[in-house]
Every structure is written in C-alpha cells, then in structure tokens.
Amino acid sequence: MAKRETIVHWFRKGLRIHDNPALSVAVDKVRENPAKYCLRPIFVLDPGIRKWLRVGPNRWRFLQQTLANLDENLRSINSRLYVVRGNPVDLFPKLFHDWNVTLLTYEHDIEPYAVQRDRKVETQAKEHRVEVHIEKSHTIFDPDVILKKNAGKTPLTYQKYASLAGECKIPQPLPAPQKLPVKYIAPEPDKEERRNPACYDAPSLKELDVDEASMGDCKFPGGETEALRRMEESLRNRSWVCNFEKPNTSPNSLEPSTTVLSPYLKFGCLSVRLFYGRVSEAIKGQKHSQPPVSLIGQIMWREFYYCAAAATPNFDKMVGNSVCMQVDWDTNKEHLEAWTHGRTGYPFIDAIMRQLRQEGWIHHLARHAVACFLTRGDLWISWEEGQRVFEELLLDADWALNAGNWMWLSASAFFHQFFRVYSPVAFGKKTDPEGKFIRKYVPELARFPAGIIYEPWKANLETQKKLGCIIGKDYPRRIVVHEEISKVNIQRMSAAYKRNKALKEEGLDGDSAATASSPAGKKRTASSSTPPAKGKTAPKRQRLENTIQKFFKKK
Fold it and tell me: Which keywords label this protein (predicted)?
C-alpha cells in the first residue's frame, strides 16, 4: 500500500479551530479522501526564540494553556496537535521528507520575523514539491487591500482608515471544521514517535523553563475555550455592550472594567471576525455608542495599527521609521529600572507596573498613564524602552499594537497633542479616590488615608512612622517632581516638533527624514565623507546638511 500523503496545518497565531480558514482547507481535503491523506496540525516550538524574544512567565503560561486546549479541541474533530521542537527553517525539509507532505497551510503574519521565516519555508516547500496555501484571517480587513484603496499610501489617521475599511466587504466567520470521518486513520508514528510516543505532546511549564513561583495568580487562562466563554459572558449584558465607551472605563478598578479579550485576540484563540460579528449582532437595532470609543471602535483600532505596521518598515523603531517623529530621548538606566519595577515613588504609576508584572494585564488607560510618564511626561526615556518592557510582561503583547500605541502615547506618531500630559496623581484619583487599587498593589502604603495615598511624600515623618511606611526607606522617594519636569518636557517636545518640521520643509520626508533627523543620522551626516551630489541637487543637499547640523547643535 502506498504511503499516504500528509497535509500539514502550521499553527503560529490563530490558535483555534473556529474561523480558521487555513485549517479548514487542510481538514476538508482530508475529509474528501481519508484513504489518500492524513492530517498533522503542528505548532513549532523554537527553543532558540528565547534568545531574542522577550516573553515573561505569565505569557509562557498562557501559551502553554492555549496549546493544551488547542490539542483538546483538535481531538474533538478526530485529530490532535503535534508540537515540534526546533527552528522552523531547519525542521521543515525533514518533515516534508519524513511525513511525505504534499500540502502546507497556514495563516499569514505581517511581523518582520515571520515574513522572513515564511519566505524561507515557502522556498523549501517549492524545492520539495509541497503546495503552500496561505489565508489571511488574523484581521478583519486585509492590509494590502486597504493600502491599494489608498493608492499604496499608509493611512495615518483612524478616521482615514475607517473610511477605507468602510468600502470593504466584511468576511463572515467560518464554523469549526467538521469532525474527520470514523474511517479516518491517524498518521502512522514516525521515527521520533516510535522512539518517544510523547515527543509531540504540548509542553509543560517545566519544559518552557518557567519558574512557577515567579508567576502571579492565573486570572486569565489561555485557550480557545476560555476565549469563547469570556466573549459570550461579556456580550450577555446587551446594555453594557451598547453603552460601552472606552474612556469611561476605569484604569484602576480592582476587577477589569473591559472585556480583557486582547490576549485571546493576540494569540488568535478568538477570531476577531467572530467577535466583530457578535458585537454587531448585540447592538443591532439598539441605540449604541459609536467608534472610535465603542467596542466596534476598539476592534477597528486594532485593524488600523495592523495596516500601518504592515506598510511601514522599522515600525517598532524610531530610526528608519517613516511615520515616527525623531526625538532626542535621554538614557537613564536608574529611572528606567525604577519605572519597570514600580519604584518611581508615584503610587499610581507603581501600582500599575506591579499589576502588570504580577498579572500580565493592565487597563488601556493605565497603559496611557505609565507610557506618558516614561516618555514625554516625566522621565523623557524612549518609547522603545517601554515597548520592550510591555513586550515581555503583557499577555496581549502584540507587535503592531504595542509599537503603534507607544508611538501614539509618546506623541511620536498618530497623536500630536504633546501638551496634554497625564498627571501621575490626579488621573488615578478620578476613578479611585479611596486608593483601593494602590493598597492592593503597593501594600507598603496600605495604611495611608485616601487624602495622601497618591502623594505619600506629603506626610510628615511622624505620620509616616505611625502608618508603618517611611518614604525613602520602606517606599521610594519620587524620582522626579512631576509639576516641574512635565513643563520642561513640554518645551523639549515642542522643540522636537519644530526640528522635525524644519527638516521636512527642507525636503526630507519619509525614511530620509527619519534617518537624517535622528541622533544616529546626525552622526552619520556630520562625519560623512560622501561628496555632494553633482548637478542641480548639490545646493539643496548642502542646505539639508546645514539644517540638520544647526538643529542638533541646539540640543
């Protein structure tokens, strides 16, 4: 009997069986001829990825739970998950050969690492005569379609993106694949399975080298089943759905005031197309809030950032990023460390950062507060540093959204009202005047009364002793004085805006302006040995160089 052909579905994101077009293609082909084909849904766990990808223990746990749940759900359709260890580029040639693979399916990914990896795997597949089928289902709208509608240009405002998306047809979510027939026979064990029957099982936390003691309580279990349950629970209250407005939710409530579906959307445990459809059903025929603050609006923000990221090289960096303003941020390791670990001396900021480290999630408005504090508000540290911390600690750390939101909140792109600065004191008081949130996450201050818990430095030493917390000893002194430094930083931001505007007026725009106006670009320009371009462009180039040097001398 001839060896059956293997169809491989490669899970990366999209860790679900509902509304998974690429998986459905694979399953349907096997269902058509189970005597000819067998199915191997795989997830590639690359040990080497830990060397460069920042993933904290809470997100490893979320992934481990998600993979275990995905295996359960695949077994419900008479299949299973095969977790293969190694680098995808090294693994696939062997898998193609050993498993007699003729079709590989997967979901498209816009992240730079994924684009390079997938290009290599596609080349390998072609060499092994393996057909590759790719579907786009991690977003509602295909970024390429949006860009084409906008003459190839990146839409840089939410409103522009929404108008372009409004011209597109909304794809309907697919149901989970039908169960493979009873007569279907699972793939024959390969050499690795015969040697170790558990070799393709989902990983344990121990295998992932996760210190369980370093994790907080598991408030948000991973997996498709939990994602669907949480979605239905959120949508059960139709009035809440219709009246939802993100700015009116609380950044410091003890329990989340939003859906907390972002981790499930990030990993693809929940289809964004399904969520969009279910929200649309809930508000149909009802008076409801409108984008961008509504639930539909929140989904569209995700779509907006994905489109911007897909079209912009170096989207997660300042230099070489055509949409990002170039700012002469400071480097201060002590301040960055204090912010990262919740030791700034500002209880509201510290409570948020400690919640992030413990639970892997913080409210979006809380992210606003700590991001503004780190960058343009108080510490004048680059948004790239904050991006890296969020990348490690957030359950929902999503490459496109993380970079996009950090640029927005630092007023480096998309948002330009840099003079609007969040107060690390007043902002939290609006929704939690009693300071319950601070008492939970900054227990050193638990005995401080509401009147001073946001500003403990105002208590005299005798009061501090009575309350069991001496500032500078049991809880840190504030590392900056917000009332003073925020004014200074507004002026610095104003100067940065003027500098960038002048460079663009001199003819530098896009990537050229990004490179030339950055500190790195400044160094290259000042020491450049490249002769001026010949012809009519030489005077203009000289003016550009003079302008660049003039503005950076003012730094």
Answer: FAD, Flavoprotein, Nucleotide-binding
Q: Is 333 exposed, middle or buried (0-12, 13-18, 19+ CB in 10 A)?
A: exposed
**Residue that is written with structure tokens 């990348």 in the block:** 391
Distance of CA 395 to the CA centre of its chain: 9
Domain check: are 404 and 437 in the same one?
yes
Show Cβ contacts of residue 443 under 8 Å, excluding neighbours closer than 6 positions: none
Same domain flag for 10 and 144: no
Binding-site residue positions for FAD: 258-262, 298-305, 396-398
Q: Is residue 508 part of a domain?
A: no
> Distance from CA of residue 171 to its chain's centroid?
23
Question: Which residues sit in the known binding site?
Answer: 258-262, 298-305, 396-398
Token pair 């204090």: residue: 338
Q: Which residue has the tokens 């939990």?
A: 226
Cβ-based neighbour number of residue 506 at 10 Å: 18
The separation between the first and the last C-alpha atoms of the chain, rounded to the nearest angstrom, is: 76
Using the CB atoms, write b or e for 88-125: b if 16+ within 10 Å: bbebbeebbeebebbbbbbbbbbbeebeebbeebeebb
What mean pLDDT do residues 401-422 have? 97
pLDDT tens-digit map of 302-344: 999 999 999 999 999 999 999 999 999 999 999 999 999 999 9
Indicate the number of domains in the chain.
Answer: 3
**pTM summary value:** 0.91
